């Protein structure tokens, strides 16, 4: 069963929230044309990503192959 996990990122102006989300998900939250032009967040942003759990060691990864032991993981 796939679980929905919601992660909120909160901070002050220019703390790197958008940069952090892009680093975690590889997806930009800047979607509005004015945001892209000016390089700032104007509207609420969001991003989706998949999380996999290793069948052997139980660790979590963004990829279905475990980065620690090399085993296959299932969508968490």
From TrEMBL:
What GO cellular component is one of the record's annotations? cytosol
Q: Which domain of life is it from?
A: Archaea
Key word Protein biosynthesis present in the record?
yes
User: Which spans of this chain does the record mark as coiled coil?
Assistant: none
Q: Which UniProt keywords apply?
A: GTP-binding, Nucleotide-binding, Protein biosynthesis
Q: Which GO terms describe its molecular function?
A: GTP binding; tRNA binding
InterPro entries in the cross-refs: eIF2G, P-loop_NTPase
Single Gene Ontology BP term? translation
Q: What is this protein called?
A: Protein synthesis factor, GTP-binding
Q: What species is this protein from?
A: Candidatus Parvarchaeum acidophilus ARMAN-5
Q: What is the lineage of its organism?
A: Archaea, Candidatus Parvarchaeota, Candidatus Parvarchaeum
């Amino acid at each position: 069963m796939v679980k929905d996990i919601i992660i909120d990122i909160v901070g002050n102006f220019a703390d790197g929230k958008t940069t952090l989300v892009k680093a975690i998900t590889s997806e930009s939250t800047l979607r509005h044309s004015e945001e892209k032009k000016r390089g700032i967040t104007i509207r609420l942003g969001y991003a989706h990503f998949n999380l996999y759990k290793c069948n052997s060691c139980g660790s979590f990864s963004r990829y279905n192959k475990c980065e620690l032991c090399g085993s296959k993981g299932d969508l968490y």
